[in-house]
Amino acid sequence: MKKLLMRVSLISILLLLGALFGVQLMNEELGISQPIPLQVEKEEASPSPTRNVNEQPMTKNELVEKRQSVEEVGRFNFFSDLGNHIAAGLNYVSRAVLSQIMSFVDNVLNG
Length: 111
What we know:
By secondary structure, this protein is mainly alpha-helical.
């Protein structure tokens, strides 16, 4: 049973690495190894922001007070920053691992 499990897992890993290698090879041949930046259209801000749907638009004094209070407190979101750092770290680690795997497979195949 152990031999069968080892063989199945080895074949699965080899098929996965082969698929990754094939995708990487085709991307390099087609010249699409660098992603195209996403074009995001910005929505135009309404000229008079409102508090709620049923309430009146904010006055200029209220907007100035709100802006001053935001500047005093500062714009900091702990969870957003934490998520950005975790995503950047995982991106770096996954790229490094895949790079090492692909270089190992390339060395094995090309001698």
